[in-house]
Structures are given as C-alpha cells and as structure tokens.
Design goal:
- The chain is of the alpha+beta class.
- The chain has helices at 9-21, 78-93; strands at residues 25-26, 41-49, 60-68, 100-102, 111-118, 123-124, 133-146.
- The two termini are 19 Å apart.
Length: 149
C-alpha cells in the first residue's frame, strides 16, 4: 500500500498565514534574527481542535506568536509585533478573501480554507530575555478541507 501525502493542520496554517504576512512564518524563529528584524516574524503551533466526524473537514486551533526585534537596541519593538497580530485578525474579517485555496508543498494536494477566526485577543508577552517583542494569539481556528485531486 502506497501512502499518499496529505495536508496537515500545520502545513495549512502556514500556507494561510503566508497569504496574510508573506513569507514571514514558520514553526520556529530563524536563527539569524537580523534576517527578520525589518519585518517581524510569526511562529505557529497546533494547539488543539477536532476533525469532523462525518465529513473531511478539519478545524485545528493554532497558537500564533508574532515576533519583532531590533538588533541595534535592547528596547523591544512592540508596535512591529502588534502590527503582525492585527494583520492576522483583520484577515479573519476579510470574508471576500475566504474561502480560498492555499498551495501546499510539492507532492501535497492543495487545501481550501473555508473560514478563519480567533478565539481570543492577542496579548503582549513581556520579559523576553532576548529583548524580542512578542504578541501571542491564543487560538486561530482555521476550517479547511483537502481539495480533491
């Protein structure tokens, strides 16, 4: 039996967030903080959710952290991180852009995002030892389904 590649909640969330913040999203921060100092960066983790029992509809809850840094200063650039979080919130309200098909990596079928919403307000996470600014979105729920090939 040959197993086919299938989109995962992490892949779909990454692809959808890239439509919002550009190529500034991954599961971990880049090691070189100068590479994202000008624009900020988003990281994500699947935090929960439940696949539908009867139809192939997935609705994972994604934890998203929006980061910003200023290599020239120890003062965290809070506004830059907050701007990323606000862009994600605004995209959830942009109903004309959802549903949308988001591309997957090579070999994976595409996914159709049917809705996206947050389960709480983003909040500032103070006292980062590296002086990064960080806003956390506690739950971004993305309802999606695989596009039949």
């Amino acid at each position: 039996m040959i197993l086919r590649l299938r989109p995962t909640p992490e892949l779909v969330a990454t692809a959808w967030l890239k439509t919002v913040v550009g190529d500034r999203v991954a599961t971990t921060l880049p090691k070189d903080n100068a590479s994202w100092a000008a624009s900020g960066f988003c990281t994500l983790v699947v935090a929960g959710g439940s696949p539908n029992l009867y139809v192939p509809l997935r609705e994972p809850a994604i934890g998203v952290d929006c980061w910003a840094n200023n290599p020239q200063s120890q003062k965290p650039p809070w506004n830059k991180a907050a701007t990323l979080a606000e862009a994600i919130q605004a995209a959830c309200y942009d109903h004309a852009q959802i549903p949308q098909i988001v591309p997957m990596p090579a070999g994976y079928p595409a996914a159709r995002v049917l809705s996206a919403y947050t389960t709480g307000e983003h909040r500032r996470i103070p006292d980062d030892p590296s002086s990064y600014a960080r806003y956390s979105i506690p739950g971004l729920v993305i309802a999606w389904t695989e596009v039949p090939s």
